[in-house]
Each structure stands twice: as C-alpha cells, then as structure tokens.
Amino acid sequence: MKFFTKLAAAAAVSLAMVGTASASTVLNNWQFNPLGTGVATAQTINEYLDVNGNAFIQLNATSASTFNFVEHAVFNISQADSNGDIFTDTFPGGYVTATFEAYGSGQFAGGFQFAGGTITMYHNTTKTYGTTAGVFGANTGTQIAQFQVMPGGGGLVDGTGNPTGNGQITVNAKATTPGGLHAGYFFRENGSDLANEDLLAFAFTNANGVGPKGLTPTLVNEVACQFSHYTGPGCGSGTYSNVAGNHFFVSNNGQFKLAEVPEPGSLALFGLAILGAGVVSRKRKQA
Q1: Which of 22, 38, 207, 208 has the maximum number of C-beta atoms within 10 A of its C-beta?
Q2: 136-143 contacts: CB < 8 A, separation 24 or more?
Q3: How many Å apart are CA 151 and CA 116, to the nearest integer?
Q4: 16: helix, coil or strand?
Q5: Are 235 and 175 in contact (CB under 8 A)?
Q6: How far apart are the C-alpha atoms of 219 and 184, rounded to whole Å?
C-alpha cells in the first residue's frame, strides 16, 4: 500500500510539473475510424482503447538474481473507454488487432524494464483473432499503425520472473512520421489527421498467469511456436506446459492511450506521471 501511495503522490507532482514545463497531455476526445475511411464517420474516443490478449514470455537468467527476457503478444481491440461500444457494431468489418514484440531485463522478486520493441496495429474486414490465420489472427489485414517501444516502463515480478498477481505492466512507445499512424484512421478532436504527427502511446495492462485450461493448442502453436520461435516441448504435440523462471504465458487486459510528444527533457517525467495515473486508476477499479 505504501508503494502505491508514494507512486500516486509522485504522479500528482509530476503531472503538475509537466503541465508547467510543456503543453504535452494525454489526448482526450480524439477520433478513431477502424475502417480507415476518414473522420466524417469516426468514433470519439474519450481517453483510451480497451485491449486484451495473451503474451508468451521467455526468460534467460543472467545471474542468480537477474534475467533478460523476450516477449511476444497478440491483442484484440474491440471497444473504447470501457463503454461497450463494440467497433464491429458501429463499423461492420472494423476488427482491430495488434501484435507486441519487446525485450528487456529485470530482477527476480523485483522489477523489470523494457529496452525496446514494436507495437503494430491492424484492421481486419473479417474476424480472424483467435484463429490460425496469420499469427493467431492478430497480424492479418491492413497495418494501420506502428509504435516503437521506448526504454522504461515495465512492472514487478515474483521470484520466478512471473508478473505479480494482477500486476500492472506499463509500456511507453512512440509513433513517428512518416508511417507511424496511417492516414484515415486516427484524428484529433478538431478532425485533423494524426498521421501527420509524431505521437506517444502509453499502454497499461493487468497481467495474470495463464493456467493449463487456458493454454489451447492454437494459442501455444500460434504465439509460442510460430510467433516467438519457441522450439521446446509442446509445439504441435499438445504437451506444452509453462515452466516458471523459463517460459510462460500471461493474459493481459488494459488501456491504450495516445499523448502529445513533450518537450525534450520532460519525457521521463511525463512517463512517470502517466504510470502513476495508471496505477491510481487500477486501484480505484479494484476498490
């Protein structure tokens, strides 16, 4: 509890300082059209996109207390602001998915941080997520955005390297022009296309271990064996099992936010503020 209290306090101070040092803020009331057909029929996003999916994590111990890791994840994005407005109801054929590839380091029974990686978002005209199309159906269709994971973020793990129960994971990323955001999908509140701008992204997900019942052959073969290039027991045989401290699946659900790029020198401070805000939000939901 003391940790969250201190982090919330730090976040409040950081947000105040960022407001003074830079005009950079999380984007509110931006607009998103999952079909890519322009702003006229876009949906207003009050603050965030809801994301949920699964990640396969491979650890490599570098000492008795430290490790390096590689993570591969697939995500489904079906609504915004937890309001139940399913994109495929509002936009028939507007299925949105994403893949996540990242690497970093950490300390057993301590924290871990990302060092780099990529978030790629796709639009699909048919529902492919959870199937054998592409990689678990998460990378099919048309690419609509790509973000580069920035150093930092992360979360807490237990003595085996698994994220702590319902532990919050934070990812900081950046989309740059040209090619970061594709035209016709993402817009400011005033209707200007965000494809012409550099933007930050902040993802907050709650991570929980996936037990045997959730480890379907499709998930294992698609995400571990195909996407992550895992070659251990279980690929194609149905005998896969998590091995603590080595390789395992986690489920994730959370929020994906866009933000202005702050002035040089305030980026780290802004990231701390966003992290604190995410922690406070999660604690309130659990209350």
Answers
A1: 207
A2: 136/74, 136/218, 136/219, 136/222, 136/223, 136/227, 137/74, 137/97, 138/53, 138/74, 138/75, 138/76, 138/97, 138/98, 138/99, 139/74, 139/97, 139/99, 140/97, 141/95, 141/97, 142/36, 142/182, 143/182
A3: 6
A4: helix
A5: no
A6: 32
String of b and e for 218-229 (b: at least 16 CB within 10 Å)? Answer: ebbbbbbbbbbe
Residue 47: closest CA among 62, 30, 33: 30
Q: How far is CA 99 from CA 110, 113, 129, 212, 277, in A?
A: 26, 19, 11, 23, 25
Inter-residue contact 217 to 184 (CB < 8 Å): no
Q: pTM here?
A: 0.85
Does residue 217 sit in helix, strand or coil?
A: helix
How far is 117 from 134, CA to CA, in rounded Å?
A: 20
End-to-end Cα spacing for the chain: 13
The domain locations on the chain are 1-23+266-287, 25-261
Query: CA of 144: how far to CAs of 97, 151, 184, 189, in Å?
Result: 10, 23, 9, 19
Tell me the per-residue pLDDT of 191-239, one tens digit each, with 9 for 90 and over.
999 999 999 999 999 999 998 889 999 999 999 999 999 999 888 776 8
What type of residue is 130?
A: G
- List the helix and strand counts (H, then E) for the chain: 4, 12
Peptide bond connecting 178 to the previous residue in cis, omega within 30 degrees of 0 = yes
Residue 259's closest CA among 192, 178, 177, 172? 172
